[in-house]
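Worked example

This section walks through a single chain of length 268. The input is the sequence exactly as stored; nothing has been trimmed or padded.
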Amino acid sequence: MRTLAEAGARLLGGTLHRADPLHGGDLSQVVRITLADGREAIVKNGPSPRTEAEMLRAIAASGAPAPTVLAASEEALVIELLPTQGALNHGWASLGLTLATLHAATGDRYGWAEDYAFGPLGISNGWTEDWPRFWAERRLLVHLAHLPTDLARRVEALAVALPDRLPRRPRPALLHGDLWGGNVLVADDQVSGLIDPACYHGHVEVDLAMLRLFDRPSPAFYEAYGPLDPGHEERSPIYRLWPALVHLRLFGTSYRPMVAELLSAAGH
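Given that input, the structure is written out below as tokens.
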């Protein structure tokens, strides 16, 4: 952790005075640094700090709150220290508005300019103009070789059915891509920043579905976000399946029941 802190200090052209480790989840290290001149910042590593920096800049460019990128290298990302003296259970309405702002940013096709990763697990983001194909090839079928045979067959059957289950050309909105409560910073009752993104352009319902995997947004969230398209409840388990598969591969068989339940909910 000291090495990461020192790398961040060098990127800012300063001398490290203090380093305080922060909880950064299971896939990266995060440290709060204080420089000798009094400046403070957050430093983290990850699969591709420069790519994450571009994602944070894209979120900020949409008008949604995100920490300012102060510096980035192949080893470290240095970002602004944001206020966090709040809790998401008081900030659901603010998050609804934040996501509506983020999702208003629109691309011309699905994917991202670079592939990314959750720790050791790669995320394929190659561009395509067919949304069911993107979800099948980039988010479901890539896992087949790593799944038990019974689950792999069910996932493959669902992927084949996606042209009849998902819209072919939904608006290619800018997505956070790894949206859950731990990646939302809140000050009082307002979202101060979206962090740890895995951005790409896709169907807005992906972020909304993923948020429901481990969190329970209040009615105030949906009121602030705005109306959803008919059929969104039927598509939600299809979209939640991807993060469930990621958790199964990264963290083991305790997530197998979640995958199986989502496949059943999706009709497979």
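What to look for: The CA atoms of residues 116 and 123 lie 5 Å apart.
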